[in-house]
Write a structure and sequence with these properties.
By secondary structure, this protein is an alpha/beta fold. It has two domains: 2-175 and 363-378, 3-Layer(aba) Sandwich (Rossmann fold); 179-360, Glycogen Phosphorylase B (Rossmann fold, 3-Layer(aba) Sandwich). Helices cover 37% and strands 18% of the residues. It is built from 13 helices and 13 strands. The strands form two sheets. It has a seven-stranded parallel beta sheet with strand order 3-2-1-4-5-6-7, with helices on both faces. It has a six-stranded parallel beta sheet with strand order 10-9-8-11-12-13, with helices on both faces. α2 packs parallel to α3 (101-114), α3 (101-114) runs parallel beside α4 (133-144) and α6 crosses α9 (269-278). The longest helix has 14 residues, at 101-114. It is globular, with a radius of gyration of 21 Å. The N and C termini lie close together (9 Å). The relative contact order is 0.12.
Length: 379
């Protein structure tokens, strides 16, 4: 089958780019794949981070081009003709931010009118993280042009069904992210030595962009209660998309500076692996979510997780086995589970459970069938 993908791929730095890159790599084992990525993804004012691109691109094993300028309507016509020329059986359109709606509506409408290519919308979310009426208005016409859908969570499936009750949609269990990284393993002792962490230290990690819905402030509020019962070193690793001074001030007020390290930057793959290898536990104290790739990322490195009880996160966590599920916006409950994990020496038990759990993330023909579920009977 000849498969196209529209959306970001490596070296773009967002999670959607990593997800798309892995998807294309996995699909290319059985299909001819060509990705049409962005020449320009979106203007800088929509991306508060320092850069939209990795400094060191990696070699990709599938055909790709950086073709689409989302800010130039004339470019959309040019991109359509390039895509149409490929005579694709199906094109997977990555949907994750409402800004892309004008560009996507033009491309998808032209494909509907002037090609036989089926359109699969790969919906990372339906409701945006910072939802407003404009986002809803922009989202509807994009989703209306999809022939069928893939989502990552039951939350996104439910959101989609509320808008289009008859939508053809299936949930794809994403592969673990360890294959995304060039260097897959760093021994824990070596990683801890590099970060100046003692071999006996308990370590918990928050990883990813820091935005209001990620709930890092609740993790910070939980730390004093944790430290009353067990000593833990906390790491917050990721670019802050809000005022970091407010966080540092609260850390100082709580007098927990010696137990929390903030790394306010988008770390390279090589640096990220060091943090993954050094940590004992990933913490996702989110306020809301449709999905988080941090969970398969953690599982890829055999790390348990603590997540908030919000739809979109709990699908992949077995409470009390591969991690814990705690009420959102509840520092006391979060602290209790962190303490329980370390005080009761749950790491070895949970790691074994994670190793078993992550088998469901392996790529397979069944996952292929999920990706193409909307067109299998048409081929």
């Amino acid at each position: 089958m000849k498969v196209g993908l529209i959306g970001p791929i490596h070296p773009f730095r967002n999670g959607e780019a990593q997800s798309n890159t892995m998807l294309c790599e996995n699909l290319s084992e059985r299909h001819e794949v060509v990705a049409f990525s962005f020449k320009r993804q979106y203007p800088n004012f929509l991306y508060p981070g320092k850069s939209q691109l990795y400094n060191s691109p990696k070699k990709l094993n599938f055909r790709h081009s950086f073709l689409i300028n989302t800010m130039n309507p004339l470019n959309w016509l040019y991109a359509f003709f390039k895509i149409k020329k490929e005579k694709l059986d199906v094109v997977i359109v990555t949907w994750y931010i409402a800004y892309l709606a004008p560009c996507y509506v033009v491309l998808m409408s032209l494909m509907k009118l002037f090609s036989k290519t089926q359109i699969c919308i790969f919906a990372h979310n339906v409701s945006q993280h910072e939802e407003n009426i404009l986002n809803k208005i922009l989202t509807w016409p994009v989703l209306a042009l999809g022939d069928y859908f893939i989502v990552f969570s039951s939350k996104t499936e439910d959101d989609l069904k509320q808008i289009f009750p008859d939508a053809k949609v299936k949930i794809l269990v994403e592969t673990t992210y360890d294959n995304h990284f060039k260097q897959k393993v760093v021994p824990a002792a070596q990683a801890r030595e590099k970060l100046k962490i003692k071999s006996t230290d308990n370590v918990a990690l928050f990883f990813g962009l820091v935005r209001p819905y990620k709930g890092v402030k609740y993790l910070i509020e939980a730390i004093p209660d944790v430290l009353k019962k067990v000593d833990v070193k906390f790491y917050v690793v990721g670019e802050f998309w809000e005022d970091i001074k407010r966080y540092r001030k609260r850390i100082a007020e709580l007098k927990i500076e010696d137990n929390i390290t903030i790394v306010d930057q988008y770390v390279s793959d090589e640096e990220a692996i060091v943090y993954f290898s050094a940590t004992d536990l990933f913490v996702l104290p989110y306020v809301s979510a449709t999905y988080s790739a941090v969970i398969p990322l953690a599982y890829g490195y055999n790390k348990p997780v603590i997540v908030s009880d919000v739809l979109g996160l709990t699908d992949l966590v077995d409470d009390g086995q591969t991690g814990y599920i705690v009420p959102p916006q509840n520092p006391e409950a979060l602290a209790e589970k962190i303490v329980h994990f370390f005080a009761k020496n749950k790491q070895d038990e949970f790691v074994q459970n994670v190793k078993e759990k992550k088998k469901i993330f392996q790529w397979s023909k069944e996952k292929d069938d999920v990706v193409f579920h909307g067109i299998l009977n048409k081929l």
